[in-house]
Amino acid sequence: MLWLASSRPLRRSVIRPLSFATYSTQRGNPLRILFCGSDEFSCHSLKALHKKHKEDPDLIESIDVLIRPSKPTGRGLKQVTEVPIASVARELDLPLATLAHDTFTNWFMKKYINIIIAVSFGRFVPPRLLNQAEYGGLNVHPSLLPDLRGPAPLHYALLNRYTHTGVSIQTLSPHSFDTGTVLSQTPLPGIPIPPNSTLTDLTSLLAPLGASMLVSSLSSGLHLPPHKDTSWQPPFPIRHAPKIRTSAKQIPWLTPSLSNLSTGLPSPTPHLEDIAHQHHILGPLWSKLVVRTPKKEQNKRVVCDDISYIPDLTSPDLPPAVASEVKSALERCRDDPWAEEQIPILEWLQIGEGDKEQAPEWYPPQPESMDMFDRVTALERGEEAPVVDPATSTEGEPQQPKKKKEWRLSIQTAYFPDTETGSIYLRDPIRGGRGLLRVGKMTVDGKPTRPAANVAAQLGRTVTDYRGMHFDEEPIGKVLQPVTTESEEDVEMDEETKRRRNKVMMRRIYTY
């Protein structure tokens, strides 16, 4: 007791329990942890902490687990799936609590907790809880912070085709996500990411490393103040890893891929390859398919799966019959670009939120829609085309643009079916090139999954009134150039002639 009195400052009560005298001041008081987790990545950290608790109870005295409530998922929200860490906590016989209504509001932490550890939890731990805990909070983040801050660093490391990544141990900030002090980090250049890794592969690679770093940080007393920042400063603008929402799994027929939106940089790979890469990381992708009949038009939600990229017509992954059919179509269209070919097509809708996503600068419109042509020319000039509301506008008065909450663009793609495998092969609808996108399976409006060729045969159609498919392999350059064999200076046109010329011009704005 004399040693204890000389090494600690005197307080109002000098008498302390005998058990406290056995702990080193370098490791602080025994840790009574509130562990907040959810997925497989957090399960590794919980198991490692429990193992350390059994081996060294002087370091970790107890572990309580907090999870978020189970949410209904699937079509019709009929399936309720519990987070994986709940079963791990029961298996380890640890106290388990659930956030009511998925929020910390009116939730109170047990008084004996002195540190909070959050791993892939997905909820911001409020300052009132961090201040209550003697050692605040820690977080295991699977990235080299400050790069890829956000809830989906593994996804964006793969989407952005990172060659290396790592793990960071940081304090929980009372102000915002992933802005705490980095206490420990994988040494640069980081851990190599194996080629063609999936999300499961990268999780299996980093989760044990993060768990080991967490236990090592606690054993070394890095959680004790004062905290020293050991993070690096990237030589490029910090990239973020926002939550992967349903809209992120929409096929980007016209807009940049998800990785390009994250970095703000143009993609060095073909657009169709980016779509196939997005499927490789995120799983099945969806789009809207336009189904036209003589009586009505419907937009069906289609989930596309088993997607891959075919770089050119000589690829061994391309069936010879499909390669021959594509070559034949290319030759026919080069010889007679105005020929009315019976080409099978699929018509898609890409949907974007007006306040979050920027509509493409130009896109192939429907030839029968003059309003859409006005929209194209306005976008080509960098202007926003006004949308006239017939109910509120009167002739002769200036029209006010109507703000749209979302934009919807129509895209047509030629498809080539493979009768043996049931797959279809699509040409890039905008950027051209020699590649093809293979889609093996489709699910329409939640019905049973079928071969893509069967779905295309039922819901696709052929071009009958205009060719509609441009097979040139050169990038589009003169999409809005007027179509005439005479010089523009020698042609005087009235309004009706201009409209007819524009209609003809629109027939030559082909997807390819």
UniProtKB/TrEMBL annotation:
The enzyme's E.C. designation: 2.1.2.9
Q: Which Pfam families match?
A: Formyl_trans_N
Q: Name one GO cellular component term.
A: mitochondrion
Residue ranges for the region (Disordered) are 383-405
Which domain of life does the protein's organism represent? Eukaryota
Q: Where is the Formyl transferase N-terminal domain?
A: 32-216
**A Gene Ontology molecular-function term?**
methionyl-tRNA formyltransferase activity
Q: What is this protein called?
A: methionyl-tRNA formyltransferase
Q: What is the lineage of its organism?
A: Eukaryota, Fungi, Dikarya, Ascomycota, Pezizomycotina
